[in-house]
Amino acid sequence: MNIIIIGTGMYVTGRGTGEYGTILPAITEWKRSGKPLSKVLLVGTNRKHSLEALQKAKTLQTITGVQYDIEVFPKKDGIDDKAYLDALSCLKEPACAFVAVPDHLHCEVATACIKRSLHTLVVKPLTPTVEEAEKLISLAKKNNVYGAVEFHKRWDRQNRILRDDYQAGKFGIPLYTWTEYSQRKSIPSQTFRTWVEQSNILQYLGVHYVDIIRYVTEAVPVKVMACGQKEWLKEQGLDVHDSIQCLVEWRTRECHHFIQTLLVNWIDSEQSSAMSDQKLKFVGTLGRYEGNQKERGVRLLYEDQKLEEPNPDFCRPYQRCDQTLEWEGYGIHSIITFLDDVSSIYENRIQPAQLEGSRPTFSEALYSTAVIEAACKSLQNLSSWQHMALAG
What we know:
The chain is α/β, with parallel strands linked by helices. The protein has 12 helices and 15 strands. The mean pLDDT is 96.
């Protein structure tokens, strides 16, 4: 199978860091397991960045001992915002696509992939608007394409415990859930600076936990209210919220209503011991769940470095007996699951429609997209409640 990756940034290759991202390591591990990977097309908009991504990929192959053919786009020096169209025209079947571009480009790029009949995985969120999400859902069904969103937190064992116990009825009737989630200042002010004003912290980060509550409870969001603050980032010349606080009212299939509180920011100190600080609580009439998803039991302190609290469960390299490195974690598992699903579709063992209900498909992602769009409308309208009408 051939793979096209549209986007060469931090999540794909670890650009701007000393790491290798998540998507390329996951594809490498899929290949290691004996899967039929023929070629990877790695597509950016800047020839210089694409060549840097190619070098990262070659280094990754050296340290893992896993080899596969890689071709990069654009082919000419300079900037080419439509290089992905050239790459798509060169792609040989069977193939699938990864879309890892800025949020506001998801619909445009995913549409091109689906029209090419490529099973497509989009990094979160699916789209910023319900209109765009519904367009992609309809197009994927029309082309019998499997479309999914890379909501990797569905594979996090901490969240799976919550889901399993909720589905078993151990929490009783849900009453409320609370999430605090934040990242360092460098993410909006440096890493995503060129497009951050077309996103926000709830859309980029908080959307994970909107999806988790949908995944855990299978409830439907009915109304949303949000408020936020613009202080530090505004001083940096960026018209974007430092922090957003959001309330979501959900309705279960049994017509019980509960409230989700989301407290999110991306102006944590660069001295924070982890890139992400994340906590989740869930309370029902019969039980309570508390997950500290930052402090996972490991602390590292060296003479010349600040304190680090790594997440050993997300995406991390570990040394094998032959001294090569292999990547493990729920971020890896999420992407490998998609690739396995695509292989099963091409082998006629399953149909895309059979994955509804068990995967973060485009249809599932409609709920989280509806929440972030409603939250944006609330922010623009004096934090007024925004009502939604979604089937569930």
